[in-house]
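Long-time lurker. I teach an intro course on protein structure, and each term I like to show students one example going from raw sequence to a predicted 3D structure in token notation. This year I'd like something fresh instead of my usual example. Would anyone be willing to generate the tokens for the chain below so I can use it in lecture? Attribution to the forum is fine with me.
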Amino acid sequence: MTVDLACLVVNALWGLALVTIEIQGKTRAGGVAWNAGNREAEPEVPAWVERAGRALSNHKENFPLFLTAVVVVHLAHESDRVSAIAAIVYVVARALHGLLYIGGVKGVRSLAHVVGLGATLVILSRLVL
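-- Reply from a regular --
Happy to contribute to a lecture. Here you go:
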């Protein structure tokens, strides 16, 4: 397995971690009965739980572009050291983004987002270089 594909798996697992963080926070606030029920009403949760939900939404918005970039570059046999490093940078940046989002850190969080997007564009650049 290439580094690029391994990073794709790691990033997918990070998405699972974000889901778990959010639902654990909601379950603590709403109780097990809320979690096992139809969840027709959201429980009142601390701000960090709401931020975890937004971090998850942001992850879901950014993951398809990264997924597409890695898979297309891989299938085109254009993955190389540059795409591998960019994939690692993406995973680290996106993990930092999520943690910073949950922690309520604003400026650096945005920087992590931009770094992740830039890393994705570097991966895509392997198709034209």
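Some talking points for your students: The longest helix spans residues 3-36. DSSP finds four helices and no strands in the chain.
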